[in-house]
Amino acid sequence: MTRAPAASTALLTDHYELTMLQAALAAGTAHRRSVFELFPRRLPEGRRYGVVAGVGRALDAIERFRFDDDVLAVLRDGEVVDQPTLDWLADYRFSGDVWGYPEGEVYFPYSPLVIVEASFAEAVVLETLLLSIYNHDSAIASAASRMTMAAHDRPCIEMGARRTHEEAAVASARAAYVAGFTATSNLAARQRYGVPTAGTSAHSFTLLHDSEEDAFRAQISSLGTGTTLLVDTYDVTEAVRLGVELAGPDLGAVRLDSGDLGDLAHQVRRQLDELGATKTRIVVTSDLDEFAIAALGAAPVDGYGVGTELVTGSGHPTCGFVYKLVAREDDDGSMVSVAKKSKDKISIGGRKYALRRLNHRGVAEAEVVGIGEPPVNDGNDRPLLVPLVRGGEVVGRESLEAARARHRSSREELPLTARMLSKGETVLETIHIGEPEHH
Amino acid sequence: MTRAPAASTALLTDHYELTMLQAALAAGTAHRRSVFELFPRRLPEGRRYGVVAGVGRALDAIERFRFDDDVLAVLRDGEVVDQPTLDWLADYRFSGDVWGYPEGEVYFPYSPLVIVEASFAEAVVLETLLLSIYNHDSAIASAASRMTMAAHDRPCIEMGARRTHEEAAVASARAAYVAGFTATSNLAARQRYGVPTAGTSAHSFTLLHDSEEDAFRAQISSLGTGTTLLVDTYDVTEAVRLGVELAGPDLGAVRLDSGDLGDLAHQVRRQLDELGATKTRIVVTSDLDEFAIAALGAAPVDGYGVGTELVTGSGHPTCGFVYKLVAREDDDGSMVSVAKKSKDKISIGGRKYALRRLNHRGVAEAEVVGIGEPPVNDGNDRPLLVPLVRGGEVVGRESLEAARARHRSSREELPLTARMLSKGETVLETIHIGEPEHH
């Protein structure tokens, strides 16, 4: 398995991060020790929980955040920043510490998803890139989790690449896998992350041939009887009959991509059974979302292919995470909490800890977010922050399978109301402990 | 200006494109001459027109669609396709023809945005990548166009990088520029596409310093009096007073990022004028969309910074374009039109032409989409398809400035109802001419 291209990530950054840096370098404040926090102020409207994804991608991106000659030339030629700033950037290498919620964990309003501690200069320039990755990947994983929950044990296959930016597609396939999807159509996700891929044929393949029979023969002959035949190009009943005639009762699956999928699935299941193809699976695709998946729960469907609604976050394509300075070094070397005073955009100053409070049956009861030292653990509080980067070295890398397993167990811990797809309140209340020292 | 990394784009592709290819190669049908069409079945609900973007990126991506050893190893090791298919892919180089709507052009339901003519094998494998690029970039440009229209002559600055996938962010900045935005915060968009960038400072910069005065002094000293001061960290009135005191009446701009932006803008304008800073501009940011921009039309605002709603397509993050086989070579070498029979997913067989019909005052009246030869031009029909690739060579590359100019003139041609932001019907009816020969 190869990695994503090792190009520099340094310019996937907002202009103002570097002009702030320039001004802070000149003022002598750039080296003040600082704590930044990445967090959500709320869940998307009506959602009951969110899912953290993108952690592994963010760690890769931090490692590749370097200002090489090509990058510096862009900044110099564009007069984006001055020479002392260029000199400082040329040596940039993140040397601080990062803690965060591990990948696949669920989150709630004000969960401190990432805490970056470094000099202001080193930490501020990571703002845009960290937000891009977390906001996108977590939006996809949060939607995907609702879909896999609605599908129960039936597999969900991610096939949305064509409906989103070609690189967002790869990250989407990865995030969906973390949240329980079993496979993707996206070959780059296989290449970069080892996500299993699947796929057989489209309507164009049938139309290329002189008849549906020619097309099915060609597909079965090349891909084997275990293949999935797309049966709605002309007439579904005739196509199912033909498919079983040509492939025999070992035909792997048929795919339905239009019409009333519930009714059709019942009809096709009866037909397949009558033809002796009792093990042939029925896969449905066509603008599915978590609600459509749930509605098909009683239909004889064996798998869901999900595209548009997955890669667009099922109505919520971004998470609204923000990255705020919450504490910084004072003149005397001590750390002080900071927060801006805005009524509509609240942030809470101070370096946070975070715990998931569980009851004696292991069911989650609250998200506890506090400032200072965490309370002595009474055995039912699960710490949520893990070290991701220590002294500039990535220490939090793990396999996608580990993230996938964490998501499953973390979701199972939630109260049953988390399973409700209807709009509602967050299933865990966030309890804030400790007062920030206002500056 | 450097180009995007020259990595292979071949695996930004759905698995099934390659299994279809394998089956068609084995059946001897892969080399049939084929015409694929990329088109929308409809506009997003309530939208009155759409904007084509991503053309230049698609041409770059086609050139980089090559199966090098690394790519082939992924397909071989994963047993995605068989050896004859791997051999064929190793030599892949698109050698066909592509026509399309040029970048920045507006579109309507069934506008044939891209027409690809090549062997089935060469054309089918481009499906996923072309759809990804066009669906994403056109969604962003379509939203951006409504925003720049609502802003009239006031500049719109794209600053949504943090709210979308880090690479989608670069493409979004590019698409927004095509649709009339004047600048972006995204430095990679400067690097790759020469889009102007802008930005000064965030709340974290103010909070880093011991006081707002220290922060403003640091910023003005380093970035000059023409800088934009962010004035809502603590108290807006005090910050505006301080900013003009420190920078003098030549202070470039102040930025408002919270609160009731309309009221605040009036209040700050009065204060600036009273302080003699009559040329200091007021820039507003904070969850703006086309409706908020329009609502601020009467407020003394000099520029809009737009983030989340731009990069998420203002409610419509994807366009729903599809890529369908519409004609192919028959056994006797003639081309036949093809289309699947599905009531809910209509496509129209046959190779298309497309014209914008204008009235004698130069106002667009209809989108004319036909099969076969276009009618003799009566002087008021503007042909919409231009050659993009000829015999595998890219011939349709142009500057972003050209696309930007085209968008402006193409939008100005539309009836006045195109300016309405409320939900409504497409402003041009699509007239279909000629009957497809059904196969």
TrEMBL record, chains A, B:
Domain Nicotinate phosphoribosyltransferase N-terminal span(s) in chain numbering: 11-134
Entry comment on modification after translation: Transiently phosphorylated on a His residue during the reaction cycle. Phosphorylation strongly increases the affinity for substrates and increases the rate of nicotinate D-ribonucleotide production. Dephosphorylation regenerates the low-affinity form of the enzyme, leading to product release.
Entry keyword Hydrolase: no
Keyword terms, alphabetized: Glycosyltransferase, Ligase, Phosphoprotein, Pyridine nucleotide biosynthesis, Transferase
Family that this chain belongs to: Belongs to the NAPRTase family.
Protein name per Swiss-Prot or TrEMBL: Nicotinate phosphoribosyltransferase
Reactions that this protein is recorded to catalyse: 5-phospho-alpha-D-ribose 1-diphosphate + nicotinate + ATP + H2O = nicotinate beta-D-ribonucleotide + ADP + phosphate + diphosphate
Function: Catalyzes the first step in the biosynthesis of NAD from nicotinic acid, the ATP-dependent synthesis of beta-nicotinate D-ribonucleotide from nicotinate and 5-phospho-D-ribose 1-phosphate.
This enzyme's EC code(s): 6.3.4.21
GO function term, MF aspect, one: nicotinate phosphoribosyltransferase activity
Pfam families: NAPRTase_N
